[in-house]
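Try it yourself: sequence plus zinc ion, in.
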Amino acid sequence: MHRLKTDLAATFAIGVSALAAPATAQQQDVIEAARVTLAGIQNSSFDKNREFCGLIGRNAQGNLVVTRPRQGSADGCRPRSFRMFSNTEVLASYHTHGAHIPGETVEVPSTYDLHADAEEGIFGFVSTPGGRFWIIEPERDQVRLLCGMGCLPHDPDYDVTSSEALKPVYTGAELEDREAGG
Ligand SMILES: [Zn+2]
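Structure, out:
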């Protein structure tokens, strides 16, 4: 449900301005790196019912760097930082949402996820038990569905024939309402 705050902001002093207008092609390769990474850890996330998380950055040579996924708890995960790699600009976080638990819905990023990425001035990517793939866009104060149910590996316990009605975009305020049961 949550990705725990990191101390990246303090470590790297990355401002939102650095992300204000990413080139579309550049953003596209970050999205693809996140998609491939999350697809590869979905099954471990379900089997262990743990969140897995990490960071995506760009090094001084202009290449994307993805940190090895770190195993968190059932509802939180703190990514490894790039501290050991100087000259790597952190662009985005990624995390899974663990296994499907009947009666709970973690098919949408949380307000905590949105706030954590906002504080760090980075994008975020989230994969869910239902195989949904979201991007967190703090500069727009929203989360946006990149691809829907089953587009990434999904938990066999998640009923993909269920029609959980989700919107393709949630603003921060809408996420708060949703979490409040409104
Ligand atoms: Zn989350």
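One thing you can check immediately is this: Confidence is low (pLDDT under 50) at residues 4-22.
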